């Protein structure tokens, strides 16, 4: 099968350069490719393997040992006087649904059962040694697999301690991961383990887009002919990689260049020293690629643009990026070292022709609003004579009126219906309280949801607690115990056990699952009047942060005016959630029944997509229903009876009707008054909730 040629990929200069740097110096630490769907991320990564130099390996070694320097601890060793073979560098793909056994290897069950010996079956980390390990959608990979993968990439070795097998083998590879940020982010500590990052986005230029489509159609019409047309360009790139690898040991990193690298890392306040090491290695590789004998300020700048953006992301609400004006300022202040002379002897020798180096483009800016934690301007004193929910609601008058800020939107439909005069439909956007780290809350019992870091669950990964009939993964001890009583009746005569299909057992493992926390929030005028939306938004942002770390999903349903809307569909994307919450408007009447119905619909749709994920519904309301009736709301609450719920009562004033208490009773939910919430706000209620 013909792979799409690397040199035929149009655009993506930053990504091409990052991949070529790692091809020259795999010690840089790999590449994380972030970008929207349909931007040729997978295509260009798969094409890279064809440019890598062929390797010499020990014939028959499952761990691709170098015959000139074999691994003394290779499980297939020793390799004295071993025969060598030449083969292309491998591209090994790690699928999202891979198991731990597939990644690191495991006991060879067939030999254990038939021959009674403990033998190791290598995994993908062994197959990728001295090649490329490609992880598509790395942000969707289970956390424990990501940890194993990045540990091996950092140490150059894989350690296996399981099922009576203790193995260590070399595992050095070029790690490339791709991800779509819309589907959730990697944790900052995992981002830091990737050497370089590249942001990719489809060009908006019609001519460039036409060229991309033209090339792709030509490839699909005649893959062999298209590949042959670009074979020379790919061959030149492959030659250039080999030549740069040969020059790499000769490149000098001067003290001045090193001080410039460390000054940049210090200026941008990156954690740890991995960024300094990655920048140094990347700058050296760039100098070798350009056939320079010493690192220059231009090399340092390119290395910084590729190595630092993802390390600046300390908080999940921060979008990856780098202030290039600030970078230039640091480089100008520290770039006075001498780089004019090439320190290598014979550096003036003629160079063979090589393809042009892709010029990197600035990383695409992400469209996202910054989360502010500063206190907003004080709101005006409440006007006791105005009722945001309108006359005749049968409830105490609220304490303030939502006056629209300059340029605020007004609900035109309700204004035409005669409600505008009361001020009920004037909308404003409230800021959020500062986000904070919430305490852990769990859903009691044992679920079977998606692996996460919160509630107890039976998952394919985790602590083994027993065995049950099944074939997904063999539980060796359970299988042996099941077969042992039947050996005489089965006529066993040799050393091996007689195993039948009904003897096979799979492990029962207990780990942690992620949950769905769905907020159903009253965004009417009375809520904004008391500035309650600030606390609600701050709590949801805090839970988004916690969900990011624990692999939960968080959703938000709001109701105001005449209807309800899903302001935030269930998601693990922190950036999307932060933007939606920051722009959430408040004002208008209180359609409580519509909010509960919308919440039931969200849970129903999410259950179809992910039936094993258990939800917790947090309803923030005073129980009033000024659009529709309280009885309608109580009937709608019946649809949420199967979900664990918390009702936060926001009713205020000297006279309380207890409508939220009636709602909580109908739901079978815990009732918490807003004024009784702990100092850390609404998230404390969710964290402390124990669902029966």
UniProtKB/TrEMBL annotation:
Residues 350-361 have a biased composition (Pro residues). Residues 313-402, 446-469 are annotated as: Disordered. Keywords: ATP-binding, Nucleotide-binding. InterPro entries: AAA+_ATPase, BchD/ChlD_VWA, ChlI/MoxR_AAA_lid, Mg-chelatase_DI-like, Mg_chelatse_chII-like_cat_dom, P-loop_NTPase, VWF_A, vWFA_dom_sf. Residues 365-388 have a biased composition (Acidic residues). It comes from Actinoallomurus oryzae. Belongs to the Mg-chelatase subunits D/I family. The keyword Nucleotide-binding applies. Pfam families: AAA_lid_2, Mg_chelatase, VWA_2. PROSITE patterns: VWFA. Residues 516-648 form the VWFA domain. This is Mg-protoporphyrin IX chelatase.
């Amino acid at each position: 099968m013909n792979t799409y040629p690397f040199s035929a990929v149009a655009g993506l200069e930053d990504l091409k350069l990052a991949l070529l740097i790692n091809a020259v110096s795999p010690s840089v630490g790999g590449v994380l490719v972030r970008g929207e769907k349909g931007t040729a991320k997978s295509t260009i990564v798969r094409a890279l393997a064809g440019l890598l130099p062929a390797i010499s390996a020990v014939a028959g070694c499952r761990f691709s040992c170098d015959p000139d320097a074999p691994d003394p601890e290779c499980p297939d060793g020793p390799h004295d006087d071993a025969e060598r073979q030449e083969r292309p560098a491998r591209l090994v793909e790690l699928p999202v649904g891979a198991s731990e056994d597939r990644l690191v290897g495991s006991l060879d069950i067939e030999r254990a059962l038939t021959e009674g010996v403990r033998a190791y079956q290598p995994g993908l980390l062994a197959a990728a040694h001295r090649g490329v390990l490609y992880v598509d959608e790395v942000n969707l990979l289970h956390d424990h697999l990501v940890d194993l993968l990045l540990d091996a990439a950092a140490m150059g070795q894989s350690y296996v301690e399981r099922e009576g097998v203790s193995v260590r083998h070399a595992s050095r590879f070029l790690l490339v991961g791709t991800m779509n940020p819309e589907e959730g982010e990697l944790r900052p500590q995992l981002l830091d383990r990737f050497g370089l990052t590249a942001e990719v986005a489809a060009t908006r230029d019609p001519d460039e887009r036409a060229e991309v489509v033209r090339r792709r159609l030509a490839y699909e019409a005649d893959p062999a002919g298209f590949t042959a047309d670009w074979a020379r360009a790919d061959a030149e790139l492959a030659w250039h990689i080999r030549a740069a690898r040969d020059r790499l040991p000769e490149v000098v990193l001067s003290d001045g260049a090193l001080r410039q690298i460390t000054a940049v890392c210090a200026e941008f306040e990156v954690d740890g020293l991995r960024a300094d090491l990655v920048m140094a290695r990347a700058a050296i590789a760039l100098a070798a690629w350009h056939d320079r004998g010493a690192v220059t300020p231009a090399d340092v700048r390119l290395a910084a643009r590729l190595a630092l953006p993802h390390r600046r992301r300390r908080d999940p609400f921060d979008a990856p990026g780098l202030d290039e004006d600030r970078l230039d300022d640091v480089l100008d202040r520290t770039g006075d070292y001498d780089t004019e002379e090439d320190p290598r002897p014979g550096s003036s020798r003629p160079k063979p022709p090589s393809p042009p180096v892709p010029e990197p483009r600035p990383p695409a800016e992400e469209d996202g609003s910054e989360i502010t934690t500063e206190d907003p301007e004080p709101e005006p004193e409440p006007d006791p004579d105005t009722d945001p929910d309108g006359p005749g609601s049968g409830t105490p008058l609220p304490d303030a009126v939502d006056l629209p800020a300059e340029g605020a939107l007004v609900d035109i439909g309700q204004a035409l219906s005669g409600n505008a005069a009361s001020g009920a439909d004037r909308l404003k956007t409230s800021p959020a309280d500062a986000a904070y780290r919430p305490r852990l809350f769990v859903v009691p019992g044992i679920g079977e949801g998606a692996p996460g870091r919160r509630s107890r669950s039976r998952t394919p990964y985790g602590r083994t607690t027993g065995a049950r009939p099944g074939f997904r993964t063999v539980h060796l001890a359970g299988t042996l115990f099941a077969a042992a009583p039947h050996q005489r009746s089965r006529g066993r005569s040799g050393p091996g056990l007689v195993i039948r299909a009904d003897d096979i057992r799979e492990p029962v493992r207990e780990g942690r699952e992620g949950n769905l926390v769905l907020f159903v929030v009253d965004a009417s005028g009375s809520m904004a009047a008391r500035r309650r939306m600030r606390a609600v938004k701050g709590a949801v942002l805090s839970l988004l942060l916690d969900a990011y770390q624990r692999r939960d999903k968080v959703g938000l349903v709001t109701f105001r005016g005449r209807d309800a809307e899903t302001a935030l569909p269930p998601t693990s994307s922190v950036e999307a959630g932060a933007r939606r919450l920051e722009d959430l408007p408040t004002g208008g009447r209180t359609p409580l029944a519509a909010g509960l119905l919308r919440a039931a619909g969200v849970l129903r749709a999410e259950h179809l997509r992910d039936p094993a994920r258990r939800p917790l519904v947090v309803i923030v309301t005073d129980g009033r229903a000024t659009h529709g009736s309280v009885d309608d709301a109580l009937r709608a609450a019946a649809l949420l009876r199967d979900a664990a719920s918390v009702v936060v009562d926001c009713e205020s004033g000297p006279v309380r009707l207890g409508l939220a208490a009636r709602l909580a009773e109908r739901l079978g939910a815990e009732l918490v008054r807003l004024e009784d919430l702990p100092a850390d706000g609404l998230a404390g209620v969710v964290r402390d909730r124990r669902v029966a």
